[in-house]
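Please go through the sequence line and token line underneath and see whether the fold suits the sequence. See right below:
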Amino acid sequence: MAYPESQVVMGGLVHIPIIIGVFWALNNLTTGGSKAKKAAEAQAKQAAEEAAAKAAAEAAAKQAAEQAAAKAAAEAAAAKKAAEAAASAAPAATAATPVSGEAETSQASNNDTQATPAPDQEVL
């Protein structure tokens, strides 16, 4: 039995997407596992790199904190030593206590700076 040419062409065109779908499914079934493994390995590698970077940053921060603490302790020891040296070097002379009015005057003379008024206030 003979078929017209148009029916044969149409039948061929209909089967092309079906064949493409079959090959696509076979490709995904055979290589899908390896793609998932590669993705999992890449994710694990990235997580390991991030953990290593985080550990390095924590170690650097800890080292910086230790250096700062050592520096502060050295400065405190130097300040204490300087204070002790100043206390032992100061003469044991008695200081004359000023009269109460003189004490207030001397204190006022140390604060001779003029107050600056705010921009919205008037200067009297």
